[in-house]
Amino acid sequence: MANKKRILTSLAIFAAVILVGAAGFKILGGREWSLLDALYMTVITIATIGYGEVHDLGANPAARIFGLVFIILSLGTIAYAVSSITAFVIEGELKNLLGRRKMDKAIAKLKGHYIVCGGDETAQTIVRELRLTKRSFVVVDPSAERIERMAEAGPLPSIQGDPAEDAVLVKAGIERAKGIFLCLATDEANLFAAITARSLNPGLRISAKGIDVRSEAKMKKAGADYVVAPAFIGGMRMVSEMVRPAVVTFLDMMLRDREKGLRVEEMAVPTGSRLIGKTVSQAKIGERTGALLVALRREESRDYDFNPGPDVRLKKGDILILMASPGMLQRLEKFLLSG
After folding, report:
1. 2-105 is classed in which CATH architecture?
2. Is CATH 3.40.50.720 what the domain over 110-228 is classified as, yes or no?
């Protein structure tokens, strides 16, 4: 802001000097000097070109004295304006360079993070949710303009480049990432990015946007774990709004509450947890963490036990489905490790 103010000030002074010079030469030159003559004389004086006087100032001492004073004034003004603009450009470039290096170092330290490919409305929604639930992420998009627009909402670890290129995803830390979201402009772009991501990290979770509902099978063959079709989701949402409005309103309120940040989350019971072998009643998850246990899925099963009873015993690898905030999840993670 200080540099911008300095530039605006120098430009304003520069414009004022031109106006003063043109007015001075016109007034002191008399009728012989046209406005164009006065402006021309002002410009060549400021630029120190030395083309010669438009009219002879020898017979006009006042105009000659004004010319001497104006030369000194204009030289100082030019020096100030040039130095201000140069400082703005150099400092701006230096700031961008240092900021980029700092961001690259921060990205290189990330582990278990998410990569968001794309800068459309879908990608922006994903970024807002990751921010709200305090999850680490990196945005990758070929367009610098889209990245800058997304950065207006808050700090944005980002890399400009094509997500289908190995080097770009490696720079985003794909080998250390937990998952990747593919929200590029076309199904073809998402398909190529999925192939690249899967080849670089076979254990990565890949969620891709399918613009054409029929592209789901191809996306999964390319390596995507999940394919989400906005058209299908939009249709389901419209139906839900019609037949179960109270439920939709409840979910909307939960998603939009930025203070509590409640979400339906999942967490696995790790090896060595003291909760292994304990019943739901004995575990007292809600009392100790505030999280609400909604369902449970055994590691070896695809079925869910909704609202598990107090006598259900926890096993290693059980997937706990909970309603919790980011703070509750942190407490639960410590709780699962300590029991």
Report:
1. Orthogonal Bundle (1.10)
2. yes
Kindly provide the residue ranges of all beta strands, DSSP E only, lying in the chain, ordered along the sequence.
Answer: 114-117, 137-141, 158-160, 179-182, 205-209, 226-228, 263-268, 292-297, 304-306, 319-324
pLDDT digits (tens, 9 = 90+) for 291-309: 889 899 998 888 889 989 9
Question: Positive or negative CA dihedral for 330, 332, 337, 339?
Answer: positive
Give 52's pLDDT tier (boundaries 50, 70, 90).
low
Distance, CA of 132 to CA of 128 (rounded, Å): 6
C-alpha span between 145 and 55 (Å, rounded): 52
Q: Write the burial class of residue 254 (CB in 10 Å: 0-12 exposed, 13-18 middle, 19+ buried).
A: middle
What's the CATH class of domain 262-338? alpha beta
Q: Round to whole Å and give the CA distance between 48 and 322.
A: 75
Residue in 178, 182, 211 with CA at minimum distance from that of residue 112: 178
> pLDDT by residue (tens digit) across 256-284?
666 667 788 888 888 888 888 899 999 88
One fold for 2-105 and 262-338: no
pTM over 0.85: no
Local confidence band at 50 (pLDDT 50, 70, 90 cut-offs): low
Q: What residue ranges do the domains of the chain occupy?
A: 2-105, 110-228, 262-338
- One-letter amino acid of 173: G
| DSSP states of 169-216 | HHHTTTTT-SEEEE--SSHHHHHHHHHHHHHH-TT-EEEEE-SSGGGH
